[in-house]
Every structure is written in structure tokens, then in C-alpha cells.
């Protein structure tokens, strides 16, 4: 496994040491602005001027984003992780995240992508989990976002992979550049709990050193702003986990005056039932960790739920949060809201190995439910996932993205792709030998202490 080197203990506060391919003779020298890695052919200079600076007129350009891609690609191969601030200084990070956060926090919980026309394409992307080089490939393969090419990312930008920060910042830059063309939805990993277990927090602390806590806090603030779902051309619903429950509150006794008015949660007293788009629009998404109990359950459902082949809605006991929903619920949801397609993500090859009745994630997508009103698809865009594995036996999964085309944008065109090889050698930021394989068995006790 060329890309998995032993990780330090999870609590190790020291920066991970950058490791380069064994066939490269490496010496790293640091000057005030640039660091170069020597190879037998000599040092590879940065392809663009570093450090990057925020445009004087504050408006990002395609050139700026291409420079960001080149600089991140170069630094991932030629600098140690702790030298990232030489490429992207904290003040530039601050401006990028603040600008993006302002845009994101204003978006509704469910963004509607309606201004597509006969020339439009909508690219939908699943989990990417910090696999920067695969994300860059995907963007180039699908074609960059532009006037006629929308992108909807279904969340899980960070954790597990070693370049979650660069990946997330690159996508934020696209959001700032083309806010009406690029949509970034929230995944369950865009949370305090997940990032503290699966590597992103440590990654940020290693990369930004004494400014790491500040950078991590700003990222968490931005995660809270990410919308939960999208509806594309009125026909396609996308979200990271998927469907969600109704949380309508029912006044019980009011007979003895207003003082004794009680509210009770539908789900605690009645069977679970599917929530509506109106309820989704009213949920409070700005939470560091979506709660699994109480009244604000919709964000947790949307980010954590999974489909099943068994009818009905039931608690997702494997994950400890969210729901399992059957084909009947897919049909009800599609029919009720006049939709044709649900595209969700959230399950990679590791998760699917343990889901009898559902397809494996070998080619980056599965068609899970086929019902009279349409289909439910799971889309996963991190090939050769997870980046770090304790065994020689890798899943060798491909990743995929979906292109939706006019006239109705409801027929998925699947594009499958392989991982970029070799990945730059680097240490993991979490203890991948001990940490549980998928997002199962959510440790609720730890989540309580984390909030
Ligand atoms: Mn997920």
C-alpha cells in the first residue's frame, strides 16, 4: 500500500512528517516564501507565485482558481503539510472562508436550481473525503463550472483523506467565484463530531500550527452554513444521506389554559412518517452537530439516513442517528413532490460491504430503489477509498459523478473514473487501524461531550 504509512497516535500533537516517494531523493529547504523539494532532476519550483494573495478588487477569477489548484497540487507533492501556510497564508484563508460563509448562510436549507435551460448541464458529485487529486481530476473530466455547467456537491468533503482542507477550500473558491452555479451541500462529516474522530481537525492543526485552532473554528462555522439539500430543475432531489421524518408538533391538552399547553414530538408518540419539503425548509441547520434527539431532527436525518430494501421508516440503529427508509418511502416522496429522482451519497464501498440487499460501490454508484415514480441512486465520488487502510486488501472502487441534461434533467448519465495514481505519500491524520470502518456505531456519548 504505497499511500498508507503508519500514523502516529491520534493524540500526537506533533505535525505529521511529510514523506515523499521512496524513489525520490528528497531534501527540503525553507526560505521565507518558498520551499522546494529536490529530486534527482533538481528542485521542483512552485508552478505559480506563492504565497497566493486575495485579489485586490476582491473578485475571484478563473485564473485565480486555476492557480489555487496548481498551488495545492504542487504543495501536496513538494511541501510538508505544515508548510501549507506558505501557499495559503491565514489572512487569505480568512477572507476566502468569510466570503464563502456569508454566501452559504444566506442560502435556504433546500436550494432550488431552476435557471437551467436547453444548454445547461448539471453535474452531481458524491462523497470526496479529502482526496484532492481525484477531485481535481473530476472537475477537469466533467469540465469546470461555468455559465452552462452547474455543480451540486453532496457533502463529505473532509475526513479520512489527507487533503480535506485543500479540497474544501478549493470548493469554497468555486462557490465564491460562481455562487449561482456551484452548490455545496452539507455531509455528516461537515460536523464537529466527525472531524474530531476521522482526521480533519488534526489535519488542520498540523497544517496551520499555532493558527490551527483558529482555522479549524472558521471551517466549523462554515460547515454550519452549508445547505442540506437541493432540487434540480424541479425533478431531482439531492442530499447527503437522504429522506427525513416529519417533526410536526401536536398540541396536546389545552383545556386548562395556555399555561399547561404541551407539545410532543410526532415521532415519539406516533409511527415515524416522512417529512415534507416545507418542514425541511424550516429546520434549523446551523448546528455544529445535528442532534439525534429533541425537536430539530431533520438535519440529522438528511445527513445520516440510509435506504433499505425493507418497507417503511425506522430508526437507523446501526448509525445511532438518522433513519432507514424503504422503497415505499422513496415512492411516496417522489410522488408527493412530483420528483423523478433522488440522488444521495454517504455510503462507500466499506459501508456497502455490510448492507445485504443493496449493491456494492465498485463503480461509484448504485441504483437502490426503482419505483413507479422514479429512482433512488447512491453516488460516491471517492475512488480507491478510504485513502488509508490497515490491510493490503483494498476495495479498488471507482468513483462516479452524474451529469443531468435537458429537457427534464431527470435521466442520470453516469461517469465512472479511477483514482489518480500514485497518490503523494503522506501520513494519515487519524488512527485508521483502530477507528471504525464506516460511520456506523456513532458514539453518542462522545458526541455529547463534543458539543
Ligand atoms: Mn457520509
Automatic annotation (TrEMBL):
Q: Which UniProt keywords apply?
A: Hydrolase, Manganese, Metal-binding
**Ranges of biased composition (kind: Low complexity):** 26-41
Q: Which GO terms describe its molecular function?
A: metal ion binding; protein serine/threonine phosphatase activity
Give the UniProt family note: Belongs to the PPP phosphatase family.
Q: What is the uppermost EC class here?
A: hydrolase
The name this protein carries in UniProt is Serine/threonine-protein phosphatase
Query: Its domain of life?
Result: Eukaryota
User: Which InterPro entries does the UniProt record give?
Assistant: Calcineurin-like_PHP, Metallo-depent_PP-like, MPP_PP7, PPP_phosphatase, Ser/Thr-sp_prot-phosphatase
- Organism (species): Populus euphratica
